[in-house]
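tokens incoming
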């Protein structure tokens, strides 16, 4: 047997190097939360407000939300059982604690996943990121609600939550 070590070493180096670059790219766009990629979820959960990226809440929050759609923050958002379970699976599979990227871990800091809030706007990290916004800003007519992410984050539907 005479296996040359060089091509193997080169391949390993390339793999290592490109994954390091990928990690860097993800770190650079520090607040990228992939937009909902599932059509049914986009359609059904994006009609009253933006379809919130799954990676903004832990799976346990999505389960809680999806099991109480008849009384959804004062609205009836109920769906047939098949759609409900399809959407639940999509959201849970892509939830913050499933995604496990650097910034989703940050978003999950201080969150008790066994008793997680049903609102993104109740996560400790969300609250601290927004604590410097003046009350006047929240009362702007085009904002109306903290949950109206797109009023301030113009690229929210593309997954970016920069300070716009
Ligand atoms: C019939 C309208 C309607 C539909 C359909 C709907 N929602 Fe909502 N949703 C609301 C309202 C109203 C609120 C409260 C918004 C506010 O506080 O300003 C809300 C709030 C939320 C919040 C909390 C936002 C926050 O952080 O404060 C989440 C998460 C959410 N919805 C997820 C979903 C999901 C998942 C679906 C699809 C299964 C869905 N919604 C479909 C009306 C709807
Ligand atoms: C009234 C405007 C406003 C609304 C509404 C709003 N945000 Fe923000 N958000 C901001 C501003 C301004 C910042 C930047 C704060 C800073 O850098 O000091 C911010 C920061 C953030 C960050 C951190 C970005 C970073 O640089 O790490 C995230 C994530 C975020 N918002 C998500 C959301 C989500 C999700 C919603 C809706 C549920 C939302 N925001 C609603 C204004 C808003």
């Amino acid at each position: 047997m005479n296996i040359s070590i060089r091509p193997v070493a080169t391949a390993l180096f390339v793999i290592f190097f490109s994954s390091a670059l990928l990690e860097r790219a993800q770190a650079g766009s520090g607040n990228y939360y992939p937009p909902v990629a599932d059509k049914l979820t986009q359609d059904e959960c994006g009609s009253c407000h933006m379809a919130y990226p799954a990676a903004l809440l832990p799976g346990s929050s999505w389960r809680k939300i999806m099991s109480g759609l008849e009384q959804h923050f004062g609205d009836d958002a109920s769906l047939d059982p098949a759609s409900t379970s399809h959407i639940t699976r999509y959201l849970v599979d892509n939830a913050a604690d499933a995604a496990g990227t650097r910034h989703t871990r940050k978003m999950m800091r201080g969150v008790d996943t066994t008793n997680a809030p049903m609102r993104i706007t109740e996560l400790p990290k969300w609250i601290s990121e927004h604590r410097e916004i003046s009350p006047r800003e929240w009362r702007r007519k085009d904002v109306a609600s903290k949950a109206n992410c797109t009023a301030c984050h113009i690229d929210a539907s593309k997954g970016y939550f920069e300070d716009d």
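note: The chain has nine helices and no strands.
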